[in-house]
Specification:
heterodimer; A: about 280 residues; mainly alpha; MetI-like fold; 12 helices; flat; B: about 290 residues; 11 helices; transmembrane helix (chain A); MetI-like_sf (chain A); Putative PhnE protein, phosphonate ABC transporter membrane protein (chain A); transport (chain A); membrane (chain A)
């Protein structure tokens, strides 16, 4: 049986009508959506004023700037930059820890297996969502109004905006926990607090620790930019040097940020795996 | 039926107890040491970040009263008692919000196109060569690690104020983030269809088009939608550095203490972000089934 049968088109057509005779609407759906997406894109490009002459002059400017950036050189400000970098790292670590400390008890209220009643859970979850919907930079602006310019405002901004994100993640981790341990504690006569302490916490703590470390890592990135609105750290230096067109310092600062982020990524990756073992972090 | 619990002879038990105690004390010691290190790091960070609890204590009232102030109109009434007065700039703001959405849309699309072109070169299984892969990966990494708003700051100087630098910054940052995710999707693709296509004598391009693309297109669009969601949030602050959208109005209102304007604009931003989140979530659910959000 080595001969290749010529496929009988008619027979196939009869057997798979949904492939051969798709309705016009189904056949046109994909191109229509693509066309629509493209139309909005083109409209946006025109509406947002992407004129070719502007692009050309901008690109040549950019090329000029890139040439001025080389070689990266901190001038005499290296100590200031190192201090600013330390400030940024401090903001990230402290802000995330504060956020985790506040988010943990509140996230208990948002977990379905701790608080079965939806009446309590709903407002807590919406609170998390609302806080998360406002960008860190906006929170930084608010806190600058309260405690003044400086890194402390940055710490509070990161703490608040991460409160929303961590609260959601923590409550999801708790909902993913196994019920059996909790039932075991209850069977042994433990009350609700015992159930959380001995049934739930040991399960979720490693997950939570991993998430907090991951957030410290990603907050190093956010903390580099909140200085742009005046909340301390290396972003402040970066924004200032860009404003005064000191391009060699700018490129040096960007390099510093890249190296710092890479170093933090590496360290926290190691720590994370040490805490939770080699398994995927949610 | 009674169950007898067997009790080991006492010297065996003592040995086991001893081993258990030692193991536990070692664990406790390790925990105590890491906790101490963590507290030390926190203390160092507190000094580095100039934390001042006195300031916080003195001004915490400000934080609470800030919310009181932004929800009060100039005439001393609560904002919600006089909606037309509260949202006096509704027409202007909604236009700026539209601009913000357009910035993030165009930026996401452009970034997606770049990521789409580059990711096949960065993925382990489809890359034409190790050198190409290395270079493309470093490029994507660079675009992803530098925050979008830093690109925006530089582009504002090169391209002038307005939405153009915002779009470009979002596009650049998105191409880095999406390029990595896309190449991971491609790495998970089944290579058998590609071998099938190659067996017909097709070029690399055709292999990608007919072997890989049909498998990965779903993942690509899902990630792009997710990125759009994130970019809406990012675009809302692009105006802080002069890169277009609603952020400019917000930063002016905050700096000039137009309190009720701050709450009105914030509310509109939060509502927009909510709607986009829900909308794209619904769309993703419809297109690709319930998938884990990353």
């Amino acid at each position: 049986m080595n001969s290749v049968e010529t496929p009988d088109i008619e027979q196939l057509r009869a057997r798979h009508p949904h492939i051969f005779d798709r309705p016009v609407s189904a056949r046109l759906a994909t191109p229509a959506v693509l066309l629509l997406a493209l139309a909005v894109f083109v409209f946006g490009v025109v509406d947002l004023d992407f004129s070719p002459s502007r692009m050309l002059s901008g690109l040549s400017q950019l090329g000029w700037i890139a040439r001025l950036m080389l070689p990266p050189d901190p001038g005499s400000s290296l100590p200031i930059y190192l201090k600013a970098l330390g400030e940024t790292l401090s903001i990230a670590v402290l802000g995330t820890t504060l956020a985790a400390c506040f988010a943990f008890p509140v996230s208990l209220l948002a977990a379905r297996n701790v608080i079965p009643s939806a009446i309590f859970r709903f407002p807590v979850r919406r609170l998390f969502d609302t806080i998360r919907g406002v960008d860190t930079l906006i929170w930084a602006l608010v806190w600058i109004n309260v405690v003044g310019l400086g890194p402390f405002a940055g710490v509070l901004a990161i703490a608040v905006s991460d409160f929303g994100a961590l609260g959601k993640l923590f409550s999801e981790a708790m909902e993913g926990a196994d019920r059996k341990q909790v039932e075991g504690v209850r069977a042994a006569g433990g009350n609700a607090l015992h159930e959380i302490r001995f049934g739930l916490l040991p399960q979720v703590l490693p997950v939570i620790a991993g998430q907090v470390l991951y957030f410290i890592e990603s907050n190093t990135r956010s903390a580099t930019i909140i200085g742009i609105v005046g909340a301390g750290g290396i972003g402040l230096q970066l924004a200032e040097q860009i404003r005064v067109l000191e391009w060699q310092k700018v490129s040096f600062l960007i390099l510093m940020i890249l190296v710092a982020v890479a170093a933090i990524d590496w360290i926290s990756g190691k720590l994370r795996f040490a805490i939770i073992g080699r398994r995927a972090v949610a | 039926m009674a169950i007898a619990v067997s009790i080991l002879p006492s010297q065996q038990l003592a040995a086991l107890n001893e081993a258990y105690r030692r193991a536990m004390s070692q664990r406790r010691l390790r925990f105590a040491v890491s906790a101490a290190v963590f507290v030390a790091v926190l203390a160092a960070a507190a000094i580095g970040a100039e934390v001042n609890l006195r300031t916080l204590y003195t001004y915490f009232g400000n934080f609470v009263s800030y919310f009181d102030r932004i929800f009060t109109l100039d005439d001393g009434h609560r904002v919600w008692t006089n909606l037309p007065e509260w949202f006096w700039g509704f027409k202007k703001w909604i236009k700026l919000l539209g601009e913000t959405l357009l910035i993030s849309y165009v930026g996401t699309m452009a970034g997606m196109l770049v990521a789409f072109c580059l990711n096949f070169l960065a993925a382990e299984n489809t890359s034409p060569g190790p050198w190409v892969r290395f270079i493309v990966r470093r490029l994507l990494e660079f675009a992803r690690t530098v925050p979008g708003i830093v690109f925006a700051l530089i582009f504002v100087i090169a391209f002038g104020l307005g939405p153009v630098p915002g779009v470009l910054a979002i596009a650049l940052h998105s191409s880095g983030a999406l390029g990595k995710l896309f190449s991971e999707v491609v790495e998970n693709a089944d290579m058998k269809p590609v071998e099938g296509v190659r067996a017909t004598g097709a070029s690399w391009l055709s292999c990608m088009r007919f072997g890989v693309l049909p498998q990965v297109i779903g993942g690509f669009s899902s990630y792009t939608l997710l990125r759009f969601e994130i970019n809406v949030r990012e675009a809302s602050v692009m105006g802080f550095v002069g890169a277009g959208g609603i952020g400019q109005e917000l930063v002016v209102a905050v700096r000039k203490f137009y309190y009720s304007d701050v709450s009105a604009i914030l509310l509109m931003i939060v509502a927009t972000v909510f709607l986009i989140d829900i909308g794209t979530g619904w769309l993703r659910g419809r297109l690709f089934g319930a998938e884990a959000r990353t």
